[in-house]
């Protein structure tokens, strides 16, 4: 059963995201993290990699491991520093191992990386989607931005790009970082009214570290709602209390979204399986 069928048949569905460890760290570190969630039945597990393409060579190996463990595996693929030869080689490798799910993204630059040279071949994720879909063998996911991509001129322009990705063959979307549950509901409504028909999976980021969350919010140009701001102010100096409050925040967010008709979720595990476990077990996703 493929990803799209699972998303269609399950009233509520969830998935996990992991990233490769540093090149000097054995892959067993991430395999152990995945194994700790083996009692769950996610619709898929995705494997990302670092800014500027760092660690991307390990993505195929991890995705193959997931496939051998009978998970639906998605390999991330970004435009940064890529040309058609390197993308073609990556697609050949994935196809040969039977991994036919890809999340196509523009990707982030490493610090000091030149923008023009990094995107000289593929400027946007839509360029990447177009080339991947020429092969007619891959299910392709794309990013969606509930609070609008930082480089978009307006929410309307951002929605046009989302529709363009779907027109080029994007089979589903995963929302990028967003902590504002009302913004997420509004985004889902706007997307459907605009004519987006592909499944939209809502990304959920566990709130575990105040400085990390603040940094990621700034980099992604997403807002920190009042409820989360209060958690940071009240518990930011106490790691254990903050973690508990942060996990409760994620669970409350999921429950609110489900009550408002949003039923597909992607948990950014940050390779911390216990946090993902607590979110699943504490929410209606485990029902």
Element order: H for helix, E for strand: HEHEHEHEHHEHEHEHHHEH
Distance between the termini: 21 Å
**Poorly predicted tracts of residues:** none
DSSP strand content:
5-15%
- Name the CATH class: Alpha Beta
Main β-sheet, in a few words? 8 strands, parallel, barrel
The side-by-side strand order for the widest beta sheet comes to 1-2-3-4-5-6-7-8
CATH topology descriptor: TIM Barrel
Radius of gyration over alpha carbons?
A: 18 Å
- The tally of helices reads 12
Mean pLDDT: 91
Describe this structure in words.
Helix 7 links the parallel strand 5 (139-144) and strand 6. This protein has a single domain (3-282), classed as Alpha-Beta Barrel (TIM Barrel). The protein contains twelve helices and eight strands. The two termini are 21 Å apart. The protein is globular and about 50 Å long. With 287 residues, it is an alpha/beta fold.
């Amino acid at each position: 059963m493929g990803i799209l069928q699972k998303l269609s048949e399950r009233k509520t569905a969830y998935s996990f995201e992991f990233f490769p460890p540093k090149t000097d760290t054995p892959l067993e570190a991430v395999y152990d993290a995945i194994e700790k969630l083996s009692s769950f039945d996610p619709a898929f597990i995705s494997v990302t990699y670092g800014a500027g393409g760092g660690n991307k060579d390990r993505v195929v190996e991890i995705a193959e491991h997931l496939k051998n463990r009978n998970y639906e595996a998605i390999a991330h693929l970004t435009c940064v520093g890529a040309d058609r030869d390197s993308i073609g080689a990556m697609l050949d490798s994935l196809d040969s191992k039977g991994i036919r799910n890809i999340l196509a993204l523009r990707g982030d630059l490493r610090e000091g990386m030149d923008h023009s040279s990094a995107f000289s071949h593929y400027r946007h994720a839509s360029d990447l989607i177009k080339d991947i879909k020429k092969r007619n063998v891959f299910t392709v996911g794309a990013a969606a931005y509930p609070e609008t991509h930082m480089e978009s001129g307006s929410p309307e322009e951002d929605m046009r790009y989302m529709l363009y990705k779907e027109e080029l063959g994007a089979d589903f979307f995963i929302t990028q970082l967003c902590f504002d549950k009302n913004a997420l509901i509004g985004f889902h409504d706007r997307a459907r009214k605009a004519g987006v028909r592909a499944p939209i999976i809502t990304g959920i980021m566990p709130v575990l570290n105040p400085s990390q969350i603040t940094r990621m919010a700034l980099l992604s140009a997403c807002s920190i709602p009042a409820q989360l701001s209060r958690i940071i102010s009240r518990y930011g100096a106490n790691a254990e209390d903050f973690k508990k409050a942060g996990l409760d925040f994620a669970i409350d967010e999921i429950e609110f979204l489900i009550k408002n008709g949003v039923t597909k979720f992607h948990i950014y595990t940050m390779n911390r399986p216990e946090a993902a476990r607590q979110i699943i077990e504490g929410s209606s996703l485990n029902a």
